[in-house]
Amino acid sequence: MSKLKKFKNTQMLIATLPLVALIALFFIFCGVIQTYGYRLDMYLQIVFNEAVVLAVVATGAIFIYTLGTFDISLGASTLFAATLGVTVYNKTESLALMILVLFATGIACSLFNSVLASVFNIPAFVTTVAMMSVLSAIASQIITTDGGALGGISIPSSVVKPYSGIGFKAMLLIIYFAVCFYVFQLTKTGRRMKFIGGNPLCASLTGIKANKYTIIAFTMAGIGVGLGAFLTLTYTPSVTTQTASSIGMNIFIAIVFGGMPISGGPRSKIYAALVGGFSYMLLNDILEIVIDSSAAYGITQVISALFFMAVVYITSMNYRTQALPR
Amino acid sequence: MSTLKKIIHSLAIPVLVAAILEGLCLTQGQNIITNAKSFDNFVVYTAIVMITTMALSINLNSGRFDFSLGSMAALSSVIGAEITYSALAGGKGSAAMMLIVTVAVGCLLGLISGAIYVALRLPPIITSLGVTLIYEGIMYTITGGKYLMKEVQNSSMSAFANTWVYAFIIILVVLIFMVVVFEKTTFGYDYAALKSGQKVSINTGINEVKNALICYGICGALMGLVGFLNAARNTTINGGQLNFGSIAIMFTAFLPMFIGGYISQYCNEKMGFLLAAICMSLLNSTFAVFSNQVTASMQSIINAVLLVVFLIYLNNINVIKRIFKR
């Protein structure tokens, strides 16, 4: 076998690893649930409800990460969108208006980030750090003012009950993923984003305007935020200061877990967030069931982190450089 | 530029900030620093911000984004407090012992973080995500997710926090240490070379791995110091920070890092960080004066807006100059 063929085979094998990990984790999860005698359907619903929000927001975020930058304010944007959505519903009792506000807020927050990054030339990661503080603070202010320090704000559960079924959520996920897949894989926009992420200078010299694609990427992420906020409310129709608090950072984990390099570029994969998001949630839930003690959360997090680094190490084996990566 | 002009330019921002904030405080019939207690707080907070900014800048200036700074500070202070309490039970010399142990543990945690980065050869942003999760998980397991109080509430710690003298000594020692290590040693020269040209520096024989490990070690020690100062100032340590709850600490250092970077055009970079930390501490003291009107959420928003406005100015300085020339 030629060296090239061997290299290609190894690469293909490594590329399938995240999917293999997801399947393996799914079967382990089912096995653990059976062993402990819990209801499988109920636990699968819990995992799905937790993972679908992360998968949706992270799939939108793939567009931003592909450009070689990142946005850690997406969790705060989701919280902010959900807060405004609930506030609007409580004032108008209109579900349609609430959904409109969720998406409009998600897109507006994202576009604001992209304008700061592309028009004022501020590094995107810094603008998103600032936005994270601002959005969390405003949302906290609204929640504590309207719902009290320890409580939260909520809408009647009957409002979102028709949309809380797994089937409906799966359909939303599939539609959103299909749109993202189309834009990312089958259009000029997706190809140019990968080009910009891989070599921004070269892309600029060939006449590609990075600003335009930055705005498109942030808009796609904003749609994901709006959808994520809606799915959050369909699972729990109340919003507290802790809602979606860990999503911003878990997006990193989901994307890398799914086999995409954090540096973006041509090796970016649109399915990475979907695969990684579900894998990460399955892993967390398995560990939380198995390690049943007061310190379980801490130990679970340590094991998750070790597993995460092991998967990333294996999936990036083909891309080692002599110098330390930056 | 003459030395006098350099001094005037360096001090311009802190003096301007002090004048504006003092003016604001006078509208309330108060001063920024109202009594000896607020001066103690001012100096301790300056030390915390300066040291965090220096720790953040060490790796960030080299293109290594490190999310684990907050977790290093938190975990090292938890371990330091536990060891000290088990040895002295809050008796005489507790503060001194905790300071030494926390800095040593911080240095060790930094070295472990660096070793993981060097061994796995993954982008530092990814390894730091994993390390953050691990350190937070360990901390949660040690504390059971609770606040540490009795371990840090003793007369020795109170004596440390209730005077500006110790914090002032720490500022001086850290400043001298950083200037000497990064500007007067072979390690510092290698660091500067690697920062500006990684490949060329490696080809000239500089040991990048050794340099990176020392950087992470120093970073960890500095964050250990921050952990100790935070414990002394807050008289408690939050041991329940999971899911990246510890990263907020590094976000407070972004604004001073950019302000310090700007001031360093006219003076030593580390001196720039100190002056920027003084600006942030003045702002913090002003927030204390306005504590009835400005909530914690409002403070976050003001800090974030200042960061964005300052960066818009920094990144568009030429455009602004052109507009004013017309």
Automatic annotation (TrEMBL), chain A:
One of its GO terms (cellular component) is plasma membrane. It is found in: Cell membrane. GO terms for molecular function: transmembrane transporter activity. InterPro entries: ABC_transp_permease (IPR001851). Keywords: Cell inner membrane, Cell membrane, Membrane, Transmembrane, Transmembrane helix, Transport. Signal peptide: none annotated. It is a multi-pass membrane protein. PANTHER family: ABC TRANSPORTER PERMEASE PROTEIN YPHD-RELATED-RELATED, AUTOINDUCER 2 IMPORT SYSTEM PERMEASE PROTEIN LSRD. This is Autoinducer 2 import system permease protein LsrD. It comes from Pseudobutyrivibrio ruminis.
